[in-house]
Design a protein that fits this description.
Length: 223
């Protein structure tokens, strides 16, 4: 059973998401928070598999709440999926950098919301759809300058792992990476996992951030 915490200050939004999620046999909403501070507290208490986190919330915004959750070792298994609108684009890349596993626009289709929850738990390519790739490119273009330490950190990777990291940054799934490199999906997954361990990335989304910050991927290279 996948457990979910809803963090949004709008009761109607939470009610809609809860009705959709609870109707699934494999998903259960275990808590609701109407501000970021409560989201962090309830995440610590309930240890949900996924937190659906709105960015604009009172007391503590979703970006800082995501950062605090991501900074706690005991919450390493919790996946935060940020909810946003196109008006909040400038914040989303920062949310990924802060530890979010991915993001959704608030008016997403029900099927996409359900898929996002399941994919986040699996640690797979939540960032793979083409529209998301374009948005990630925009966030990268608006983000801070590349981290100085990102380049040297890549020296721990083999040539193939750097190649795979680049493809992850472009939004490709393991299956797409396998086809591109003419290897098996299992081999592609192994390379992704090794890169995550060597770079200390908690999930695939952070690999995307590292790919941009290290300069392996630039906006406009997405396809």
């Amino acid at each position: 059973m996948i457990t979910v915490l809803l963090a949004d200050d709008q009761m109607l939004v939470r009610a809609g998401f809860k009705a959709l999620l609870d109707a699934q046999a494999d998903i259960e909403v275990v808590g609701e928070a109407d501000n970021g501070e409560a989201a962090v507290r309830l995440t610590t208490e309930l240890l949900p598999d996924v937190v659906l986190m709105d960015i604009r919330m009172p007391v503590l915004d979703g970006l800082e709440a995501t950062r605090r959750i991501g900074a706690r070792a005991e919450l390493a298994a919790v996946k935060v999926v940020v909810l946003t609108t196109f008006e909040l684009d400038e914040y989303v890349f920062e949310a990924l950098r802060a530890g979010a596993a991915g993001f959704l626009v608030k008016d997403t289709e029900p099927a996409d919301l359900l898929r996002a929850v399941r994919v986040a738990v699996a640690g797979d390519a939540l960032l793979s759809p083409g529209v998301t790739r374009r948005l990630i490119g925009e966030f990268a273009a608006r983000s801070k300058a590349p981290a100085e330490a990102a380049g040297p950190a890549l020296t721990a990777l083999t040539y193939r792992e750097r190649e795979v990291l680049t493809l992850v940054g472009m939004g490709l799934s393991n299956e797409e990476i396998a086809r591109r490199l003419v290897v098996s999906p299992l081999t592609a997954k192994t390379h992704v996992s090794r890169a995550m361990v060597k770079l200390g990335a908690r999930d695939r989304a952070q690999l995307v951030v590292l790919a941009y910050e290290s300069g392996l991927v630039r906006p406009g290279w997405l396809g």
